[in-house]
Amino acid sequence: MMHEFRRAKRRKAPDTILVTDAMTERVIGRIGNVSETGMLLMASEPLVDDALYQLRFTLHDGGNGQVVDVGAHLLWMDRASAPAQAWAGFRFIAVSEAQSRRLRAWIEAPGSHYE
Question: PilZ domain: from which residue to which, for each copy (predicted)?
Fold first, then answer.
């Protein structure tokens, strides 16, 4: 039997969720999975290891799109098999209570798939 050691459930992105660096307004990649405490990003732009970012992405549930703004710390990066792309692990360090509730509701929505 396999045991999950992560503290927070990670929902797989059901479709493409683009992530924007709020400071530069550039799309830096797409979400692989997301939890209440962080996310896995497939980065398509260069990132600075151990840096702090202000990120923005839109979660779609039904017909509604909800913008989420988070402060995030880049914990690790690993090259992906595609050229000029990398996997990046972020820990959320600043999320408003309202956005945290939206994120939690999206993660727990019926029909979600988890990693």
Answer: 6-108
